[in-house]
Design brief:
Blueprint (H helix, E strand, L loop, with lengths): L1 H20 L24 H21 L2 H30 L9 H28 L3 H37 L3
Length: 178
């Protein structure tokens, strides 16, 4: 009887949450709203997070019927945390709308140009190390150059990721999303 009452209380909370989110469910934010540990969804719309809550709720009900106590405990805890996070988001949404947005000081095109220059220089350094590696005679020298190459390739990868983020930010700004 206790489990049935708790499930019914969760039913009511999920229904209330769905009703509260409905009017703003399609509004987009500039970035994903929640930590990946809390939600597997990585969306900019609350409706996607609500869908995940509803799916977890259905899974919880199924686990109760089947009698999987460990899974019931895990899902119940996760579901309560997700509902609380969405309720906090709803509560702070109006406050964030009223806060003046700080002006964008940075010029994304300059930032993009700078990162593209970094990328060109890193590629040049990698080419230089690769040519040195091909003529290096000692094993110690080869290992040192291979370590330098690995470090440079890691930096190049991070630089390319940053460049892609900047390009996405420019695209969002041009579309008027941020």
């Amino acid at each position: 009887m206790k489990t049935a009452a708790l499930l019914q209380a969760l039913d009511i909370r999920v229904a209330e949450l769905a009703q509260a989110i409905a009017p703003i469910s399609l509004q987009r934010a500039s970035q994903a709203r929640f930590d990946r540990k809390l939600f597997t969804t990585h969306s900019t719309q609350l409706k996607d997070y609500l869908t995940e809550v509803q799916a977890n709720h259905a899974q919880l009900q199924l686990s109760v019927k089947v009698g999987k106590a460990d899974q019931v405990a895990y899902l119940a805890e996760k579901l309560v945390a997700q509902i609380a996070a969405l309720q906090r988001e709803l509560a702070t949404l109006q406050m964030r709308k009223n806060d003046p947005q700080p002006p964008v000081v940075e010029n994304l095109y300059e930032k993009l140009s700078t990162h593209q220059d970094y990328e060109r220089r890193l590629q040049s350094m990698i080419s230089d190390r690769e040519s040195q590696l091909s003529v290096q005679a000692t094993l110690a020298g080869q290992q040192k150059l291979q370590k330098e190459l690995a470090a440079l390739e890691g930096r190049l990868q991070r630089c390319r990721q940053a460049t892609a983020r900047i390009e996405r930010a420019i695209e969002r700004r041009e579309r008027g999303l941020s």
